[in-house]
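Replying to the earlier thread about multi-chain prediction with a worked example.

Input:
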Amino acid sequence: MTMTAPPMLRNDAGIATAVAVLKQRFGEQISTGEAIRTQHGHTLTWIPNQIPDAVVFARSEAEVQDAVKIAAAHRCPVIPFGTGTSLEGHLNAPAGGVSIDVSQMNRVLRVNAEDLDCVIEPGVTRKALNETLRDTGLFFPIDPGADASLGGMAATRASGTNAVRYGTMREAVMALRAVTADGSVVTTSRRAKKSAAGYDLTRLFVGSEGTLGIFTELTLRLFGIPEVIGAGVCTFPTVKAAADAVILTIQSGIPVARIELLDTLQVKMVNAYSKLTLPESPLLLVEFHGTAAGVAEQSTLFGEIAADCGGGPYQATTEPEQRSKLWQARHDVYWSVVNAAPGKRAVATDVCVPISRLAECIDATAADVAETGILAPIVGHVGDGNFHVQPLVDPNDPAEIAKVEAFIERLVYRALAMEGTCTGEHGVGQGKMAYLEAEHGPEALELMRRIKKAFDPDDILNPGKIVI
Amino acid sequence: MTMTAPPMLRNDAGIATAVAVLKQRFGEQISTGEAIRTQHGHTLTWIPNQIPDAVVFARSEAEVQDAVKIAAAHRCPVIPFGTGTSLEGHLNAPAGGVSIDVSQMNRVLRVNAEDLDCVIEPGVTRKALNETLRDTGLFFPIDPGADASLGGMAATRASGTNAVRYGTMREAVMALRAVTADGSVVTTSRRAKKSAAGYDLTRLFVGSEGTLGIFTELTLRLFGIPEVIGAGVCTFPTVKAAADAVILTIQSGIPVARIELLDTLQVKMVNAYSKLTLPESPLLLVEFHGTAAGVAEQSTLFGEIAADCGGGPYQATTEPEQRSKLWQARHDVYWSVVNAAPGKRAVATDVCVPISRLAECIDATAADVAETGILAPIVGHVGDGNFHVQPLVDPNDPAEIAKVEAFIERLVYRALAMEGTCTGEHGVGQGKMAYLEAEHGPEALELMRRIKKAFDPDDILNPGKIVI
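Result:
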């Protein structure tokens, strides 16, 4: 297999007609300039860029509807675009078509403080939402790293460091509105916290990566800002010891808000980049949310568990500045990797396994990294069994690319063999399509294809992603 | 509109052939006796019973597959059956067909204590599962009242008193296996805690009420048994005061495990039935799970909030026997209603609204009960905005049935007008079908129909439920 996306047929005539009609309808809101098109088809993987034929900047649901109706009439693909931070080629246009940029649909429409929810447009980013919420005592916890649009986060079922306590976009999205393949608008659910009224369309759209509809509104769960936030770090002799501490923490019901692992290679990289002097050994970073007494209790319990598992010393604090210092190693992960080998590109991939298999999976992966002779640090949202590997690749070295592709393939099959998944949070896009049948089996894939066909019979919604 | 289910065409010849073939295949495991058929088509609503033509007692996934393949070959409907405790006519056979009883598929296949999950057959009941888990320090929290089969609970997206803290079956089911319309078996997900690998088939099957497939295996999330359980009760002058206390409790981030409301009429009924002397005023019952310090802190905070909202006195305890006493009013709700008017039948219905609208919705409903001149106490899982009304009906009095039907219709439209849902946890079955379009809109209903058609083109899986 290869990471290169399969070629798709282009409906050249239909696309040309659709773009011409869209130009008449959207005037200055449509661009066919190469720079803008390249930016909208960009990918953070090595999958070759496949840029769209035009970009429509939609400002309202009605405009998204118009754009989709025009495109649908001429069988021209449409690809929704938020902030362009997806990682698996989600925004590529393998069959050409039009990128629909919703970044200007960025209004927070309602904040329902009593119900702990809000209604937003899809272009709102997570940081912008939290900025708006600042004075309400509430916050939106899901943090995938990038300041992604919430529409994009819903589309890829994003999660991140806080998911162990607050869940993923699967749990955070209460309802949404989407423009479907024929340009009509569907509302998936009500604002009630739970419902048993029919098929769960909300959860079906979350994670559908633009292949079933284009989101135009999201209702999201919010949480009260914790009274106190505690942070801690602890070094462990082995990944196994750290993973054991994670398992015991979760089993004990300690409602840890974040629990992140850096492997030895990643610790070396942040030491080098941030001039830290952390022991060159696996590191766990934890965060606790709650009342003063609650956080103190959680932190003490975790410290005891860490010591029982051979970790230490455990440093903890609730003082904001000290917290940032303790967590600096985690915050600097990205830049430490990017700067570790100038000229190389960091390619992020992720898998997720049951936490009982986490140590085994990470150890085998670290051994594979060493054997393969690549630079690929590991950092994990280990409370969920989810970890990232970021191989550094010279984009102009086909041999190295092939080596890393083969490594990722082994990583995925290793996770699948441990009852895991080929992606915990990055999504399928083009990069993980090849693994879906091995993960889910042909029967499940057949049902996914039928859903796609039922929702989008002409295959115009982000074609060539998830299933074909 | 009427609560009576719409008539459906029967494929008499096909059903007769299927039953004959099934008899050859299943021998003593199939029954056509009237008593057994009646029991398997039974309904706890007033929807007329529509009994199946035969009942197959399946003992394995392979047997479910065989039964479905034979039925499918002759376009004979199949209706999965667990314990028969559903409330909206889910088990009726409006087009005839075969009930597939999976209650003998009741093995706990694996308990993965380190991962806090287990793999079970669908006929395991929630109490049986917790019995098996007893020595592991883990428990399965979802408690809809009845000792339902977990397959049935997944099929109706059940929840109950603990959902405010532990979620519903939507969150509890990590993966499942189902026999689909052509008799093949699909596995929906892996045992990893999260995944972004394609459409969320798990959530699509959860709540599908047997219309998309028959569950043969479930992977469920488990939780650590709390170190300490605290309980409390508090009387409030009005439903509004009680609801305000609920809202503040949730907003404050108190991880309340249960928070239940009894309205004045319900309090009167339990006083009468259980010889209690509770003030005849709305009552909140709460439960807290955690460490000793955590539970004490939660209970104190709740007591302060309750007092601020005009409630009191607040009685609380962590002593098991005292806890049972405090909660007796809640435990006796069912029998207090059943015994309130001998000869009448209690018909349970439920709706769910955003909690900011809860007081208004319950007050208007209680006023409607009084005006209509029926007996219909209210009890609610109010932390989720979900409440039950249990009108007492003389099944032989068509005028009273009509009166209660009209009352339920008003209740549903009242909840919908407040951004709520026609059912928070009982499901659609036949009883709530008429409201789905008003709740979701024609576009969403059309997508649900397309999903049903894509999964079950011949409409043999529990036909006449959810959407037709």
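The first strand of chain B starts at residue 30 and ends at 31.

Feel free to reuse this layout for your own posts.
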